[in-house]
Amino acid sequence: MLLDFKLFSISDKLYLPLATLFLFLLGSQLLVNHWLPFIFLSLFLIDRKKIFTPEAGVLLLFIFALYGGMIYRDFDTLSGAGSMTAVLQEAIMVFVVYMVGASLRGLAPGDLLDERRLLYLLYAFFFAYNLAILYSYFALPQDNPLKTWGMQVYYKRDGEFIHEGKLLSSIIAYFLSTTAVILPLLIFNFKAFLERRFTAFELLMIGAFGTFSLYLATEMGRRITIYALLIITLFMVAKIVLAILKKHNIYWALSFIAGVIFVLFVGYYLTADSLAMKRIFVRGLTDPRYGWWLDGLRYAFEYPWGGGEKIIIWGQYTYAHNFWIDIGKSYGILALISLVVFHLLHVKYFYRIFTQPKISNFVRLLFFIIAFVILTYFTIEPVYQSDRSYFFYTLFFVGVVRGYWELYSALNLSTDQNSALS
Fold first, then answer.
1. Read out DSSP for 230-258?
2. Distance CA 114, CA 124 (A)
3. For the whole prediction, is pTM greater than 0.90?
């Protein structure tokens, strides 16, 4: 079925390859702060019928509160050197990247091959970013180890290597953690992967990128990657042990648990000297962020129309290290409330997918893993201020969750109607 656009009509079959290209370019960092190509591509992907929904309306309110306030406060600064155009492009990008995800189509929920395509769609962003990091790894001088705070990424343009800026390790960890925690899904759902006709090469690539991401994140001192990986692993181990116990096979359950403990000890031995493990031993779960959040909320209410972005929270840090609170502190209460409401409106889609037994365990776990890592980083990092491309990916992801449920519901409704007619 064609979209109801006179100039930009594409078939449903083209959505997945074009949306995958959209995310790949976003993750590659090649077009950072150059959003016009993405906006143009989105014209072929957005289903305009989904624009007139409560979720899209609340997102538009958030965009108005954030970028409208930004333009109002800094009009004189933004009016020169094309800055105003860049801000307007970014505001449009916030809306279109969500709508591209919400316009998900061209796949049938429950189809094994389409579930494989869904995995590739959601991981195209991280795959491209991992490639950029790998390229940077070989482009860097040998005396500049990746375990230092931050690293540089180089791209070859017009025959020359251009330094694109220093990416802080905490920002890189957003991408690395989400890629790394795919490992339990790979290991503990190996049969599910084989059922979806993944080739040995595909399994090797997924495992290699996950392992590489885990290595970099631990060397850069990202404790949260270790915690996220352990939580996801224990969650999936518990599911398998319960499934074994239902068959009254205690011997196999104990053997499986012993195997997991052995693997965890090996993992600990391999990462004991990493910066992440050293930080875990020194701080554990203790962190001054809790106090930062309270201070950030206080400043958000003291500056209800925004403007508190330069106020120092602790030491030299101006961020409260919480995605929602930092939005409120910098851009006002309306931006904070509209963003929180926008995310809350999508909780129902997650709930329906997770509680629908007809949706495969593979899809539910895939959504759960990505959502878990995104929520974790929303809680502890100023995601919007740190990296726009990751912020855009999170919008795309919640859009896909909504689009997947609506696609599933429409398919079931059509099936029920055909059954009634027959």
1. HHHHHHHHHHHHHHHHHTT-HHHHHHHHH
2. 15
3. no
